[in-house]
Amino acid sequence: MRRLLTLLIPVAIVAIGIGLWLTAPSRVDAARFDGLTGAADRGEAVFTAAGCASCHHAPDAEGEAKLVLAGGQPFPSDFGTFYAPNISSHPEAGIGDWDLEDLANAVTRGVSPESQHYYPAFPYGAYAKITDQDLADLWAYMQTLPADATPSRAHDVGFPFNIRRSLGGWKLLFFSDDYVIEDIPAELERGRYLVEALAHCAECHTPRNALGGLDTARWMGGAPNPSGRGTIPPLTPDELTWSAADIAYYLETGFTPDFDAVGGHMAEVVENFAALTKEDRDAVAAYVKALPPLSE
After folding, report:
1. How many CA within 13 A on the CB side of residue 6?
2. Which residue ranges make up each domain of the chain?
3. To 5 degrees, how large is the angle CA 250–CA 50–CA 39?
4. In CA terms, which of 37, 140, 144, 277 is 20 to 30 Å from 241?
């Protein structure tokens, strides 16, 4: 037994070391932002398309109050309830003491300034594809928004999901900055960027596996509503038979071809897209119509 323990202890130490190395947070190379200057006016469009306020405004905020990113909205899941944090410009309660590198690590790597993994309820798997210039512009805009001292609420997540380091293993399995739909004509690239990256549409419209990773084999194929109420509809052309013009109109007005009106959290998505350009809405519609059907 002593000899067996003598052999097992070094093996266990090596295994733990390898595990810690594999699950360590991966950070961006700060040098990639050298020479970049952000513009707040361009950043506003990035902020809007990415839906930052939709998740991070206070639960009862309306109108201009949605730009006060105090956090607090609940997001239920099979793993517990996550609460959007304060990302206002407040230096203690929010992210006012961050810099562009901190934002890039959070948004594109899911890593905090303290080198802790963020939960993928924050859609960094989609945001990983945001361009460096858009990140710089986004940061410039966010610094113009008001500060708020509301403390962030702790997530209601139990063991073992509250072990942050384990998220490094989740990232090894499911995190990628590659596009799901790779080979597309140039005229669809803007729509793909809006849908797959900024607007992170797949986070709701694609089903997940038992570990919470997106089931890319059923990309945009619809999914159960995490709140437990109903389902999120599919967007593939074999299921969504709307024309591109119908889709673009819905993103602008919230009205369907059947004269129904948008509801739930999708109302905030439409509010965001309505503030973008017609060209962007048309680009999203063109990309959605070009999705492969689930039957393929």
Report:
1. 3
2. 32-177, 185-296
3. 120
4. 277
Q: What is the pLDDT of residue 177?
A: 92
List the chain residues with pLDDT less than 50: none
In contact, 255 and 249? CB cutoff 8 Å: yes
Instruction: Output the CA angle 254-213-264, nearest 5 degrees.
Output: 20
State in words which class domain 32-177 has: mainly alpha
This model's pTM is above 0.85: yes
Q: Which amino acid is at 109?
A: R
Sign of the Cα torsion 135, 107, 271, 186 reads: positive
Residue 282 near residue 210, CB atoms below 8 Å: no
Distance CA 220, CA 235 (A): 5
The per-residue pLDDT for 263 is 83
Euclidean distance between CA atoms 277 and 119, whole angstroms: 32
* pLDDT per position as a tens digit, 1-35: 666 656 666 656 655 566 655 667 888 988 999 98
- Nearest CA to 271 out of 88, 48, 84 is that of 48
pLDDT digits (tens, 9 = 90+) for 40-57: 999 999 999 999 999 999
Give the DSSP H/E element, type plus range, for residue 50: none
